[in-house]
Fold:
Amino acid sequence: MAKKSLAKKILPRLLIVALIVGGAGVYYYKTTQDTDEILYYGEAEAVSYDIYSKAAGIIDEMTVEEGDWVEVEQAVGHIESEAVAYQVEKASVAMDIAKTNERKSTSAARDEERAIQENSIEQLKQQKSMTESSLASARKLYEQSELATASLLAVYELQQRNYEDMTVLVEEGIEPSASLDTLETAVVTSEIAYTTSQLDTSKVANEIQGLKAQITAYEYQISSAQEALTLMDSGYSEEDRTLTELNTSLAEVDGAIAEVALENLSINAYQDGIVESINYEVGDYVGLGSPVLTLYDPTELTLDLYVSESDLLKLEVGKALEFAVVASPDIIINGVVKKIASESMFTPVNIVTASDRERLVFPVTVIIKDAGAIKPGMLLVTDLTGVEE
Structure:
């Protein structure tokens, strides 16, 4: 009985020892064997594209949100511009006048036609007068805005000085830190007010320039209409008829330019993608060429590999590589080398040994055209073992 009891105690202990020794052996084998794999890892990144405004003005509509899918040529927003609206109106009136003059050049003017021309001139004069009133108001508003901006700048600079003085007092222990927090809020508030006033002044200045251009356009239209009325009374010579034809051609060109300006008020995507960020909201002023929003193409990804000097000879621009998703190795995808850096990274200060050279790596950019299920941020791996130089 004693021998059986002793065996029952020894056998479990021997089993535990055997398991420990066996596990250590497996661990040692795995950690000491060479895999002969040349693995390089890279994180998939989306290719982003900015959608720029083709005109200056106030955004009056945004039709997409962050995360929305956008198709090529889809309208994602719209800009309101009084200058373009007047340009279109001017082109329309100019075309009407040119067509009227062209008809007059080949036929005698009737009393009804003359009355229409006189009425057109009167309308143009009224429009010019209204625009001149708007210009006078805009100039007054600009002066007031400049004064307000100057006043807000003085307040902002005063708050800054107060904050700097209070900082010294707080550091010396004369004033509590709570006083500094209050002044910091005042500095931020005054800076925002000053910046907003600057923007408002800039908007008024742009409006003034637009109104001046409208007045010049009306003066030109009135002059042309009055010349046409004179021609109605005196008749058209051959040179006059040629001139009217040229004026019609010029009006057609102005009309085409106005149509392009009108189309440019629409903010359109120039390729498919997902909205990554929107930089402006409805009511914001945008300048010509401002990046209104950013798209990224989920089907086209890039990743950067950092390849050692010894493996760099295996790669060249245009070289096709096969990648696997680290989290799901069964997912395989192809990429193409797009760029190989001409300078290395992580270079030692002085390269004097072979081990130093092994520390050199070269950034290699790979592009993946058909990403499929691959998402930005996923870790990919490629094996250069079988890649020939």
